[in-house]
Amino acid sequence: MATAFVDGRLFLGNGKVLEQGSVVVDKDRIISVHSSREDLPGDIQRISLKDHTLFPGFIDCHVHLVMDASPDPLHSLAQEPIALTAIKAAENARKTLAAGVTTIRDMGGVGGVDFTVRQAAASGLINGPRVLASGSLVCMTGGHGWPIGREADGPDDVRRAVREQVKAGADQIKLMATGGVLTSAVSPGSAQLTREEMKAGIEEAHKAEKKTATHAMGSEGILNALRAGIDSIEHGVYLNDEIISLMKENQVFFVPTVAALYHIGRMGVEAGIPDWAVKKNNTVIPHHRESVKKALEAGVDIAMGTDAGTPFNFHGKNLMEIPLLVSRGLSPNQALVAATGTAARLLGLEHEIGTIEPGKAADLVMVRGNPLEDIDILNRADAVTRVMKQGKFLGE
Questions:
Q1: Residue 222: phi, psi to the nearest 5?
Q2: What is the pLDDT of residue 36?
Q3: pLDDT tens by residue, 210-235
Q4: Statement: residue 38 has pLDDT above 80
Q5: Closest by alpha carbon to 131, among 91, 101, 86, 88?
Q6: Which one-letter DSSP state was computed for residue 57?
Q7: What are residue 387's DSSP bridge partners?
C-alpha cells in the first residue's frame, strides 16, 4: 500500500519550501509531490504532518563509524579487538539512522569494518544509513590519522595504496594533505602528502571513477590538493583568497566539520582530551571560523559533515552540525540545504537522494516544528519523530 505524508510543511532540499504539501511514496520511491490539498486514492495510508516539517533524509558527508567519540578515540581504537570495533560501528550506524541521517560518507575505517557495516545495512541485517565507505585513509608515514591509515611515501606508493582501497571496494578515496588535531606530534598547518603524491592518488581514484576527499587544514596542503585535482576539502581551517578562488573555479566542495572543533573546545582537558589536542584545537578555531565565513561569502558549495566519532562528537547527534553551521553565518535554509541537496551533489548521488522529488529514493524524515524558524530544534533529542529509508520506516 502506498503512503502519503499529508497537509504539512515540506522542505524540498533545494531551498524551496511548500507550506501545505503532500508527498506520496510507493515501495522505495517518491511517486508524487503536491503543493496543495488534492484528492488522494482511498486505499492510501495517510500520515499527518501537523506541527512537523518533512525533510529529505539528511546526509552526513564526514563520519568515522569505527571511532567512539571518547576523549582520545584513536588511542581507544588501537586498544580494542577488531570484533568489538565492528560491534560498536554497527551500533553507531543504528544511532545515526535513528537521528534522521539516511546517508553517510565514512571518511576512514580500519580492518574493513566500514565495508562490513555498509553491506550489513544495505542487506537489512542491521539498521543503518546508506554507507559510502573509504576504507583506509591514505597518509604519509607517521602522518595525521596513521592509526587508521595506509601509510604511503612517494607517488608510486600512494598510487598503490589507492589501488588497494579501490580493490577492497572503496566508494571514494580519502587522502591526507596536512597534519591535524588528534594525532600527536603533527601540526594542523603543516603540509604532509606532497602535490605529486596527491596527484598520483587522485589520478588513480578518478581512473576508477571514484571521488576524492582530503583532510586539509593548512593553506599549503590545501593548495597541493586543489592543484592535484581534489573533489572536496574537509575541515579547511586556513582558507585564503587563492584557495577560495581555486575552489570556485574547479567546483570543489567544502565540508567544514564545525562540530569536531566545537566539542573539543567545549569539553577540554577536564573531560580527558589530551592537552596537546586541546591546545591545537583552540589555536585553529578562530581561523576556521573566518574560513567558513569567507567561503560562504564567495559562494563555495558547503556540505554538511560532522566528523562524528571524534571526542564527544557522538554518532546519533549528527544534526547538531546544522545549528553550528548557522552559528558560522549560514542561514537556516542554507544550512539545511548543505545537509540535503548540496551533500547529495558532493556524493554524486543527486539523482537518487537529497531532494524530495518524484522518482527519487523514499528517504524522508519528520522533524518537530519548523527548524527554518528555530534551528535549535535540531539540538533536541526528540526533534526527529519518524525516519523512512528507501520506503521503510525505521522499526518496521
A1: -60, -45
A2: 75
A3: 999 999 999 999 999 999 999 999 99
A4: no
A5: 101
A6: P
A7: 365
Contact in structure between 63 and 105 (CB atoms under 8 Å): yes
Secondary structure (3-state) at 102: strand
Least trusted range by pLDDT, from 24-38, 195-209, 285-299, 364-378: 24-38
Q: Are 134 and 107 in contact (CB under 8 A)?
A: yes
Evaluated on CA atoms 207, 212, 216, 222, the torsion sign reads positive
Which domains, from first to last, does the chain contain? 3-56+355-393 (2.30.40.10), 58-347 (3.20.20.140)
pTM of the full predicted structure? 0.97
**236 grid coordinates:** 579547511
Query: Which is nearest to 255 in space by CA: 175, 321, 178?
Result: 321
Laid out side by side, the sheet with 58-63 consists of: 58-63, 101-106, 130-132
Which of 243, 235, 230, 172 is closest to 198 using CA atoms?
A: 230
Degrees, nearest 5: CA angle 44-48-50: 165
